[in-house]
């Protein structure tokens, strides 16, 4: 199931996050993030064609990542995040993606943006 419209990051806001946000890198993705004033989490998931030429693979990755973010319980956290996948994510099992992403999310909230 897709992210609710309220939790999707708009293009104009994503430009701000790319310019001013902090970065957390994982072994097969990176996350740009910054605090927001709306009071809840907004997210953009980017899986470029460079990751896989197949749109089915890219869409499956988007759905997987959205599901991990939804189950992480971040709805009340006031931050904007852009998840960008790298080509090494293709073929990784769900558990591995989830553990890597969960540790990256933990890093974001241990060292909050000022």
Task: Offer a quick outline of the entry.
It is built from 3 helices and 4 strands.
Structural commentary:
With 114 residues, this protein is an alpha+beta fold. The protein has a single domain (5-110), classed as Ribosomal Protein S5, domain 2, CATH 3.30.230. It contains three helices and four strands, in the order αβββαβα. A hairpin with a 3-residue loop joins strand 1 and strand 2. Helix 2 (55-71) packs across helix 3 (94-110). The chain starts with 10 loop residues before the first helix and ends with a helix. The mean pLDDT is 87.
Helix and strand content put the structural class at: alpha+beta
Total strand segments: 4
Percent helix: 25-40%
Highest-level CATH class: Alpha Beta
Count structural domains. Answer: 1
The best one-word shape is globular
Strand order of the largest sheet: 1-2-4-3
**CATH fold description:** Ribosomal Protein S5, domain 2
């Amino acid at each position: 199931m897709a992210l609710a419209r309220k939790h999707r990051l708009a293009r104009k806001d994503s430009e701000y996050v790319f310019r001013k946000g902090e970065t957390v890198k994982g072994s097969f993705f990176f996350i740009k993030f910054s605090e927001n004033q709306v009071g809840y989490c907004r997210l953009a998931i980017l899986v470029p064609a460079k990751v896989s030429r197949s749109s089915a693979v890219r869409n499956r990755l988007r759905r997987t990542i959205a599901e991990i973010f939804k189950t992480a319980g971040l709805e009340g956290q006031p931050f904007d995040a852009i998840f960008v996948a790298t080509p090494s994510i293709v073929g990784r099992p769900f558990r591995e993606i989830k553990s890597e992403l969960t540790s990256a999310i933990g890093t974001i909230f241990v060292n909050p943006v000022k």
